[in-house]
Amino acid sequence: MNRFQKLTLGTAAATVTLFAVGGLVRGTGSGLGCSRWPHCHDAELLPSISDTAGMIEYAHRGMAALVIVLLAVQLIAIVRSPERRRNAALLWPTLVSVPLVLAQAGLGAIVVATDLDPTLVTIHFATAMALVASVMLAAVNAIWLDDTNRAPAEDRADPGFTRAAAVAAAATFVLLLLGTFVRASNSGLAFTDWPLMNGKLFPTPFTGPAAVMFAHRLAALIGGAATLWVLIRARNAPQRSALRVRLSTFAAALFAVQVLVGAAQVWSRLEAWAVVAHVALSATIWALLVALWTASRRIDAAAITVEDPTEPADPGTSWSDTVTAYWQLTKPRIIVLLLITTVPAMILAQRGMPSPWLILATLIGGAIAAGSANSINCYLDRDIDEIMKRTRRRPLPAHRVTPQAALTFGFVLGAISFLFLGITTNVLAASLALSAIAFYVFVYTMWLKRTSTQNIVIGGAAGAAPALVGWAAVTGAVGLPAWILFAIVFVWTPPHFWALAMKYSGDYAAAGVPMLPSVRGPDETRKQILLYSLVLFATSLLLVPFGQMGPFYVATAVVLGGVFVYKALQLFRDATPALAMRLFKYSIVYLALLFSAVAIDGGLSDRVLG
Residue 359 and residue 367: Cα distance in Å, rounded? Predict the structure, then answer.
């Protein structure tokens, strides 16, 4: 990296730091620490050491001066070099940055003179973010001048990804503006019960600070979804770019931290550290997304376009075939299995039959959430689905739905499920369903499935979540019996799935998926199935003392669990595909009958949970 490239990176870093210091000004209430501009006070150019507010405000002005100097040096370096001067990607962002930083300084003076008018503060911040964008454009383009930093030959031109990065950046920009107006209008504590808004998903009355804060949180939801979209696309591209993956991962990770810091602002009643961290992260995320978009455009220009082998050449089908394909994306048979655990959990939580409307709403919302997770899973696994015989007829490998349409469908279903459950049940149930989607997509599908033999063990937590969702829908909380129901499904998942995987171990090996049977062999798999069946038997009995279950459940759990262990023992002694499939099929019957016993025993009992 040469000196000019270091200069552009230093200018970008100083610009982001400038707005972090601006967050310190806002967080400490030092915006009027210096009542005059450019002087601090009437007769003082600099504040006194004891004047903390004045020192903070003047530090902000000092950083602004440093950025102005760096930009001037950067512009001179470009003008003096014919090669750089002819490069519009370097010249124009720097030329735009100079008036922007001067306008920023002038707006700062106006903001002080108008006693921090909220509208002017927002315009001031918008100009600041435009400045961050322009210096990041110059920095990324300067780095690209070095041949060693250009797109590797294997990077794939992906204009669709570049557009998605632009959408994520635009959504984040709107979010930043709304966040600034929230701070400037003192609406940060319009609601003190984050993530709710006066106990609701939608605030009432919808006016004043409540409307401002709601708009900010809605923008955060959209911006977060757009950033996750970019991350998923970057990591699942047929020939993925390491640069796109790194930048999108950093942006998504910081966005998640930003959400927690935003919550900390509310919980701490706008403590200075939380406000400063929130502003600093905002500027950093925005800079990363601008850098991602710029770098992606460069990759598109430099790389050879390679068609996605999973993209259908001719997706044209009839309307009914299209509907059927989208329906199959949701994996409806798996959804039915998941919902089996929801209603019994609700009945046990109620100790009777909950409202039919509540049951229906929870089942609909849960089904949509499961369909969301399954659709995104189909998008992420489209390459291995095309290899495995068991999955080749799914909509994506069969070229009946485009990959991007499947991803869009999954995201839309996820948003609908959260809003639907949040409105018809409660935010806790909606959040648990959303967490299950995230866990299934990011932890199981994107991380564990292709890297660890424990993939289905840990990933089983997503399939166990419906029991928690059902309990939360009734009680608004998650009690110990709910966690035991969760544990039953969690422990049930490995022997259930490994029994099936034993039959298709060759498929998993061909696809490079490290399922236990294809990595450790059938002997180890049979041993693990038997061990898990014993743990499952014991776990199911925990519901007796902690869930206050009666004789009917006890008898059912003992008989069903005993048969499960017996079938696992049969498989342990004789590793035939027929015995493995019998255990697999019985495991489905086991789960359905065990949770039916929970519903019957819990619903008929008049006792109240302790």
Answer: 12
Interatomic CA distance for residues 146 and 161, integer angstroms: 24
The interaxial angle of helices 208-235 and 403-424, nearest 10 deg, is 150
Residue 478: is its pLDDT beyond 80? yes
Nearest CA to 498 out of 420, 571, 392 is that of 571
**Partners of 293 in beta bridges:** none
Q: Please name the residue that has the structure tokens 């370097």.
A: 90
What tokens appear for 35 in the block? 């009542």
Cα separation, 237 vs 256, in Å, equals: 23
Highest mean pLDDT among 123-132, 312-321, 418-427: 418-427
CA–CA gap between residue 498 and residue 437 (Å, rounded):
22
Structure tokens at 208: 């004043």
For 300, half-sphere exposure in the C-beta direction (CA atoms, 13 angstrom radius) is: 13
Question: Is-contact 450 468, C-beta < 8 A?
Answer: no
Q: Is the pTM of this model over 0.90?
A: no
Task: Say if residues 276 and 24 touch (Cβ distance below 8 Å).
Answer: yes
Concatenated DSSP letters of 573-586? H---HHHHHHHHHH
> What span, in angstroms and rounded, lies between the C-alpha atoms of 498 and 584?
8
The DSSP result for 78-96, as a single string, is HHH-HHHHT-HHHHHHHHH
Give pLDDT, residue 47: 60
Asked if pLDDT for residue 82 goes beyond 80, the answer is yes
Decide if 473 contacts 575 (C-beta within 8 A).
Answer: no
Instruction: State how far the Cα of 498 lies from the Cα of 515, in Å rounded to an integer.
Output: 8
pLDDT score for 39: 62
